[in-house]
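Input structure tokens:
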């Protein structure tokens, strides 16, 4: 079958090959035919080494498709079911799951170290234990979440990661209050979803911050009340909040520099929400006096900060009701052969979300 493979960490191009085989099918597993997958910045981060991932590997974790076959002991799924791919499934038995913090379950991460593909030259890993830049993939049954018939595959794919992450940061983690002021730093697919979440929550001012003009323009269409470049952010803080700072600032880049900017633009007693996934050697620093004196809440948000299955259902309900716009987030569509062009468009900020149709 065909798949896009990264041979070594640090390479910026994928090779589309037709000699890849999905492996590992058996009890507790399902075989999926991927129909659509989104290109998420985390895929690029794994390719560059910012996020840890063994190579060679197939990127992609934001996918949707159909069940081809189910292994023994799998219940609730049958061949032909339409599903989205959950890259962080909950085991239901670990301490995090028992506390209701299923987004902190580590069971899915354990899968990342087990190859789920092979080629004539050896084993190939799937990013985050999945790997959706391929025609077929074998995953644990918990990674295959049934979707209603009225949800297109490309919409379900977005819900599988970026939309859930962004909406959840605003709704679950920060719990944005109606009438509040919000700033979102980084307006790619996850940032746009965060803006939509803040709008759903009733924020009065939503300032989008991004260096790319086209992304600032897009942010206005998705609910931002103002969009500024990073150089204009301090002025926006002064004009909108009289210099006090925003009630909520979301960092959706994954860099310590932007996290520090977010902290500085959050009011005393306000909330800084870290949504971007960054590198292990990129340290965010605050001094002990400001940490105590400013009483700013620093809230990391992992995969939307809540039960992902409930978050999927909520995203579908909001989409059906017209409260969030998911179709317009897909700015580019390509076949698998166009994956490297799509990567370039993401790196330059030209695209919000690219849908890869398989």
């Amino acid at each position: 079958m065909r798949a896009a493979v990264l041979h070594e960490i640090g390479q910026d191009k994928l090779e589309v090959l037709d000699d890849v085989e999905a492996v590992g099918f058996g009890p507790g597993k399902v075989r999926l035919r991927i129909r659509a997958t989104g290109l998420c910045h985390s895929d690029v981060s794994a390719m560059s080494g910012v996020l840890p991932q063994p190579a060679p590997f197939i990127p992609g974790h934001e996918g949707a498709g159909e069940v081809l076959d189910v292994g023994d002991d799998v219940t609730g799924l049958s061949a032909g079911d339409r599903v989205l791919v959950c890259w962080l499934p909950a085991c239901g038995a670990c301490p995090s799951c028992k506390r209701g913090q299923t987004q902190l379950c580590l069971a899915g991460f354990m899968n990342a170290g087990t190859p789920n593909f092979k080629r004539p030259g050896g084993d190939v890993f799937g990013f985050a234990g999945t790997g959706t830049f391929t025609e077929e993939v074998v995953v644990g049954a918990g990674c295959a979440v049934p979707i209603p018939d009225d949800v297109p595959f490309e919409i379900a794919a977005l819900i599988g990661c970026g939309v859930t992450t962004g909406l959840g940061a605003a709704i679950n983690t920060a719990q944005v209050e109606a009438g509040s002021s919000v700033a979102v730093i980084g307006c790619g697919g996850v940032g746009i979803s965060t803006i939509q979440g803040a709008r759903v929550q009733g924020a009065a001012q939503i300032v989008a911050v991004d260096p790319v003009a086209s992304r600032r323009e897009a942010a206005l269409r998705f609910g931002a009340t103002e969009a500024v470049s990073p150089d204009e952010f301090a002025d926006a803080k002064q004009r909108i909040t009289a210099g006090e700072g925003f009630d909520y600032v979301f960092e959706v880049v994954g860099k310590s520099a932007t996290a520090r900017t977010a902290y500085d633009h959050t009011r005393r007693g306000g909330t800084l929400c870290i949504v971007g996934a960054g590198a292990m050697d990129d340290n965010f620093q605050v001094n002990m006096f400001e940490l105590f004196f400013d009483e700013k809440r620093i809230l990391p948000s992992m995969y939307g900060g809540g039960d992902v299955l409930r978050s999927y259902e909520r995203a579908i309900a909001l989409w059906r009701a017209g409260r969030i716009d998911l179709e317009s987030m897909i700015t580019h569509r390509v076949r698998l052969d166009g994956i490297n062009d799509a990567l370039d468009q993401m790196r330059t900020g030209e695209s919000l979300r690219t849908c890869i149709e398989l």
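The CA atoms of residues 256 and 284 lie 5 Å apart. The mean pLDDT is 96.
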